[in-house]
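re: ur msg from earlier - yeah i can do the zinc ion complex, just paste it... oh wait u already did. ok heres what im feeding in:
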Amino acid sequence: MPDIRSTQNALSITKLISQASRSRRFVGILNAGDTIRFGHTSLTLYKNSNNCLFLRNPKLGIDFSLLSGINTIGRGLDQHLVLRDAKVSREHASLIVSRDGTVRVFDHNPTNPSVIKGSMPRYVEPTTKDIIAHLRNDDRPSLAGIVKGLTRNMEKAFRSGVVSLTRDYHGQVCVMNSDGGETTWWSPDKNWHLLGFEHLPTEQERSSTYNAYEEWVRLQVYFGEKNDPALAMKHFQNKFGDPCGIRLLNIQTANDVYYVMDLLSLIPGQTLKNSVNIINFSASRDRSARYAQYKEETKEIGLIRNCIRPDKYLLTGLLLHEMGHAVMHSMNEDQITRLRGLYKRFWNNNNVLGVDFLMVSARDRIRYQYNTNDPDEFAAENFMHFLIFGRQGFIARSRNKALTAELCGLFEELYGEKDFDALEVLAKA
Ligand SMILES: [Zn+2]
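and the outut:
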C-alpha cells in the first residue's frame, strides 16, 4: 500500500487538525516520553537524534515511524498502524503531526477512548493562532509549576518586557529594569523587589532565579528550533517572495520564519504589495522608535537592535502595531480622509482605546496617543486592536461602539471582506 502520509504538505496541517477536531474527540498532545494506550496496547513516543518520531512497544515488536500529517491507527488493514487488539476498533484514532513536531491525538472511538499517560506537566509551544487567542481572551497559560523556580511574581515581571536578568563581570546576577528598551542602571543588589523578593536574596536564590529566567526566555521569547531553516525559507519564498518581494533579515530560526509568515497572512494583500519590503528582527533605531518601528523609506518593519527581545506575546502586539503603520501607508486619499475624521471624533469624545498588555499600561498608551496627536499612531494601535481582539472584541472593549464599528468597517474595506477575523485566517494558514 503506498504511504500517502509523505505526500501531505506540512502547511496543510492546521486544516487537518480542524477537520479532525470536527469529527473526532481531541485527546491531547503526545510528548516524547509519554505513553498512549489504545485498547490493551500501550505505545511510547520516542524521538531520535534526527528528531524523527516513532511509537514503540518492544514487547509486541512495534516500532512505528510517525510522519508529518495524519497517521491513522486501528484494527483495519487500511490503517497506517494496524493493531491486532480486540479492544481496538477498525478506525480507532488519528495522530496528527505538525510541522513543529507536535503530535495531536484524536479519537474515533467513544467506547474505548485512548489514554495518554504523561510523565509530568509540560509546556506546549503556542502557535501564532494560540498567541492571538490568548491575548484576545486574556488567558495566557502560566509557566509557574512548569519552569523550576519560577514564581507568579517573577513571571509577571518577565512578561512586562522591561525586567530582565543578566550576570555582571564578576558573575553576579543582576536584575535590570529597562525603560524604552535601554537599561538605565544596574547593581547586583538592586531591583529584586520587582521579582517579588522582600529581602535581599541568598546566593542560592539568585542562581535559581537566574536559571528560571533563562528557561523562561528559552520557552517564551524564542520560537523552537525543530524545523529546517532552508525549508522554511523555501516556504516563505513561495508565499511572500515574488511578486511580493519581501525580504527577511536577522531571523534566527525556522520557526521565526513560520511565525512571520503567519503574521503576514493577516495583512491585507494590497498593503503587503505597497508597503512592506523587509521584516528585520535587528533593525537600527530610527528617530523616536523604542522597541519596534516601521520605516517608510525602506518599507521595513523592524525590531530594534540591542533592545531586549520581547516575548512572543509582546512581539506579536509590537509587530501588529508596526504593520498598522504599513496599512496606513497603503490607504488611498479617501480612506485617509475618513480615518482622520474618525480619529477626530474619537479624540473629541475622549474615546481613544488603550490596552494593558504592551509593556506600558492602558492609561499610558492612551496618554501616548493623545500626546502624539497623530492619526498614524491612532491607526497603528487600533489596527493591532482589530486583529488581536477581533471585530466583536474590539467593539466590546470600546466606549463608543458605533464609532468603533465604523473604524472596523474601514479596516475590513482594506481586506475587501466583511467580518475579517485573524483567528479564522490563522486556522486555515
Ligand atoms: Zn507606532
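cool cool. Residues 321, 325, 377, 380 surround zinc ion (CB under 6 Å). ping me if u need the other ligands too
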